[in-house]
Specification:
The chain is an alpha/beta fold and 112 residues long. 43% of the residues lie in helices and 18% in strands. It has a 5-stranded mixed β-sheet, with helices on both faces. Helix 3 runs parallel beside helix 4. The model has no long low-confidence stretch (mean pLDDT 97).
């Protein structure tokens, strides 16, 4: 499943990093602690978080994650958008909470 598939099926907002929408998503990691994601995040994961600052982009890029999905209508900072476009690492958004998004994406991945 790709980021684009998830965006279309869950009607997510794409804030930036559109060139990375065809990246593969093998699983999801949900956390709001950068150190936790550094230690436990993995390649090809979509990171679900409320972290909106540029440091989140650095962690996601370092771990070769597929993208970042912001929960509860959190908006990315301007420097986050710039880093996202430079890394072709999509930053997405939703008004839904993390728990609901994890469940919805889990269901999508079970069907694919």
């Amino acid at each position: 499943m790709t980021i684009r598939d998830i965006v279309e099926k869950l009607e997510l907002k794409v804030y930036s990093g559109e060139k990375g929408l065809d990246k593969l998503v093998e699983s999801v990691y949900c956390s709001d602690l950068l150190s936790d994601v550094m230690g436990n995040g993995d390649e090809n994961q979509l990171w679900i978080t409320l972290q909106t600052h540029k440091n989140a982009m650095a962690v996601a890029a370092l771990k070769d994650m597929s993208g970042i999905l912001l929960v509860n209508n959190h908006q990315p900072n301007a420097d986050t958008l710039e880093a996202s476009n430079e890394e072709d690492l999509p930053v997405l958004g939703s008004d839904k909470p993390a728990f609901e998004l994890c469940g919805l994406i889990y269901q999508l991945m079970q069907k694919s």
